[in-house]
Design a protein that fits this description.
This protein has 107 residues and is an alpha+beta fold. It has one domain (2-100): Sandwich (Hypothetical Protein Aq_1857, Chain: A). 16% of the residues lie in helices and 46% in strands. It has 2 helices and 9 strands. The chain is globular and about 35 Å long. The protein starts with a strand and ends with a strand. The mean pLDDT is 88.
Length: 107
Amino acid sequence: MLTLTESAQTAVDRFIQGAEEPVQGLRISVTGGGCSGMQYAMALEAEAKTEDTVVECGPVKVFVDPQSAPMLSGVIVDFLDSMEGSGFKFENPNATNSCGCGSSFSC
């Protein structure tokens, strides 16, 4: 399905531990929008929905809805922390086109 690098696992786990409300995992989905037509969405979730695929990446559970699953197959999510800033980076083998900022794509 998809993979979180160790750096991404550490970052997400840190966000989960710091959450004010109980969090069971991270939802990653694909929605319409962005400069290339599709964009990634991430949110901490209290629990998985019944139709979700649950992917365990180290200490992190990732929830993926059925509509997003085909577009997230084979995706590698990394977390970069540099002087230019920090954030998640998606490497998507399904993307035929992506924007310069890397936050949107098309299939």
